[in-house]
Write a structure and sequence with these properties.
The chain is built from five helices and no strands. By secondary structure, it is an all-alpha fold. The chain has a domain of about 80 residues. Helix 1 packs parallel to helix 3. The protein starts with about 25 loop residues before the first helix and ends with a helix.
Length: about 120
């Protein structure tokens, strides 16, 4: 009789990822948030992803931005990938907006005086 061959059970455990190429490790909270966001987006975290992030995280570190801040920004903005240039560009826009807007306390004080 022709029976299908019996295949051995494949070990489906994931290999551990090597984060040693990152300038530092993020806090557990930020790392878990980032991993959860990637999972929601169905974006696997592979060693290639870790290595590519490392290049950008090193650039960020030379500008005084921590790994925690970079990954947290990815989570907040729902970024699957990361380029320091994106974060730098959005920070520049925020500085322009802050200069153009009045401080909140000034608006609040004016509204309170009018009551």
């Amino acid at each position: 009789s022709l029976e299908p061959p019996i295949e051995p059970n494949k070990n489906k455990t994931k290999k551990s990822l090597d984060y040693s190429c990152w300038p530092s490790m993020p806090t557990h909270q930020v790392l878990n948030d980032w991993l959860a966001m990637r999972k929601r987006k169905k974006a696997d975290v592979t060693q290639t992803v870790i290595n590519r992030f490392a290049d950008e995280l090193k650039i960020a570190a030379t500008h005084g931005v921590s790994v925690d801040d970079c990954l947290a920004e990815c989570v907040v903005r729902n970024w699957q990938g990361f380029k320091f240039e994106w974060m730098n560009r959005s920070a520049g826009l925020n500085q322009v907006r802050q200069v153009q807007s009045r401080p909140l306390t000034q608006d609040f004080n004016q509204n309170v005086e009018g009551w």
